Amino acid sequence: MARVVQAEAFMVDLPPKVVRHDAIQSFKSQETIFVTLRDAEGAEGTGYSYTIGDGGPAVLSLLQHTLLPALMGREAERIEANWRALLFHSHATAVGPIMALALAAIDCALWDMRGRKAGLPLHLLAGGAKDRVPMYTTEGGWLHLAPEALVDDALAAQAQGFCGSKVKIGKPHLAEDAARLEAVRTALGPGYEVMTDANQSLTAAEALRRVPMLEALNIGWFEEPLPSDDIAGHARLQAQCRVPVAVGESLYSPGQFADYIAADACGIVQADVARVGGITPWLKVAHMAEAHNMAICPHFLMELHVSLVCAVPNAPWLEYIPQLDDVSAPMAREGGMALAPTVPGLGIDWDWPTLAARTAPGSRFTVTGV
């Protein structure tokens, strides 16, 4: 084993490929925070996390002034110990998004380093359940799009081999949501999976009003119908809904997922590796879900999640939202199937000159240890 002796971090803004509006927000820019770690033997590993337009400098500040200095001199291979030590080093800022996003960049870098040193890709290092996974696309399902555009995108995805599409809901009136979903279901047929996402926009009453419509259209899941801290509301809704309620992109610790599962408040968990604090806690959530006979269908970050969903047996889907194509080689896929990377580590082939050129001014820093 070798100790961590240096870290370099910086941030890159990645504008969205298309206009992305949901019921509560717009995706302004992916503030992408990178951390590269080096150990005393010269091994390296790179991790990253992200925001959707705000908070990136706060994540960098926590890394620069608190977490990365605390990591210096620690054994790189002791990933679990490092994750817990850093969490409790600044426990006053946990549990929450800034802490989770900062921890995730470090944790992913340590897993990347471990994979590179072991000569193993992440999906094998973390379990090796499969080497490919079906994808569903969200990129053509945004809330501002007309029903005709939703249908055109879903038909094009189906022709490419995709097995499903996610459609944003949360329009002011139930009839508007129904028209959008009915158009896609009619055009794509009963064998194509259609998921929905309300992005925490509905009241309990409005969510319940949509249940008969979702059930009639055989919708794959009802994602984030209510605010994420309303566990009791989600439990009441799930008890009255034959469509699985999906939650997770706005949860920031394994314990929050445990609370949802214990309350029977969801049918699918959607842990986001960046927002839950890294690969280490993501795997805890995935295995927790497996122990409860529940699927994990992660949110966003397909280039990283492809390895994780192939590592565990209970991850049937990968969400397709391309965002890194300008700064890395495209994720490997065959039609609508995503392929697990086979190179050691995270398996993301970064375009380092482009990242350097697009680094936010003043964001790059280096931390060194003994």
Automatic annotation (TrEMBL):
Entry-linked Gene3D superfamilies: Enolase-like C-terminal domain (3.20.20.120), Enolase-like, N-terminal domain (3.30.390.10)
The entry's keywords: Magnesium, Metal-binding
Domain Mandelate racemase/muconate lactonizing enzyme C-terminal: 147-244
Molecular-function annotations in GO: hydro-lyase activity; magnesium ion binding
Listed InterPro entries: Enolase-like_C_sf, Enolase-like_N, Enolase_C-like, Mandelate_racemase_C, Mandelate_racemase_N_dom, RHMD-like
PANTHER family (UniProt xref): ENOLASE SUPERFAMILY, MANDELATE RACEMASE (PTHR13794), MITOCHONDRIAL ENOLASE SUPERFAMILY MEMBER 1 (PTHR13794:SF58)
Protein name, entry field: Mandelate racemase/muconate lactonizing enzyme family protein
Organism: Gemmobacter lutimaris
